[in-house]
Amino acid sequence: MSMSELKVSFPSEKLEALRFFMDKKELTIEQELKDYLDKTYEKAVPAQVREYVESRMEQVSAPQEGQDTSSVRERPVRQNRRQREQAAAETQTEHVPSETTSEDSQEETPGMTMGM
Hints:
The chain is mostly helical and 116 residues long. Helices cover 53% and strands 0% of the residues.
């Protein structure tokens, strides 16, 4: 996952006072700002968009980490209607029994027959 750095201007005197009192509580400004950004992200960004972004982050970070993903359950790739129809057509053609040609029979069968 790539990270971006934010740069914020803040009065030096206020920053010193803030650090002093946060140190007493064993807190850091950086962690508090990260927590605030996470809460704001969850509040402002719709859940479906967050899910998409997080799935993209997982896809990008997985190859970089080099972890064994064989035990991790992965979500199937979501397909649009055209892709689903194309996949269905391909599976139908795969299940059609292939005609076996034998040397004994040289007669071709007609393409379509109907009986009653």
